[in-house]
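User: Need the bound-state model for 2'-deoxycytidine-5'-monophosphate:
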Amino acid sequence: MTSHRKDTGCFAEPQHDGAAVVIAIDGPAASGKSTVGAAVADRLGYLYFDTGAMYRAATWLAQARGVAIDDETAVTALAQAAEIDVLPAGEAADGRQYTVLVNGQDVTWAIREPAVANNVSQVSAYAGVRVAMVAQQRRLASRGRMVMVGRDIGTVVLPDAPLKIYLDASPEERARRRWQEEQARGGQRDYEAVLAEVRRRDAIDSTRAVAPLRPAADAVIVDSTALTIGQVVTRIVALAQGV
Ligand code: DC
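Assistant: Bound-state model below.
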């Protein structure tokens, strides 16, 4: 575990004065951000907000409307006009972490389909799409008490967040975790195919022109390669509490 900043509990103050407290968690695909982010939010009594769901929702909408993913102008116009909501799961008892609505339609599970997953990196690289999503994310964050998870939360969306975590793990370990999840759900892909996809998404996310994936200068880098989810969560909660 390395740190870009001094690990001195500078997070404690905003918690005491009740100011808008948002924990930013960024990192590559399959680094455990969603599991960790949701658990940290639960432990602190914060709202969990997964910004990847917004880019997935914009991708789903383009496909649902028959807009070609390569048509940046049309995809951007659609994303800018879309009303995308990510809400607490509420009473839904189907294992969802949250509910995603696009123009009022529940797309929580639809945005997890391969058709969306295979195109979301391209959509999320469009500058106009990002402008629209970032504006919505900042509005939500201003309510405070939130764990916001994504790729650019600490660098672009909330550069003043009092605690920024960059959650990393080796590509091989991330692929292994994803492959195991897939196997448990009856998936057919072999490990090598999953590893290739992890590397492909890393390359797209970290080399794109707008808001590439990278740690903020003052992010705490948590390498989870050799840690359990529980250890990572405990570590982040301790940082949040200024221990
Ligand atoms: O975390 P995820 O797999 O649901 O993210 C889906 C895509 O959205 C992924 O290609 C990265 C992108 N993304 C982004 O560019 N910025 C964010 N803040 C969150 C996700």
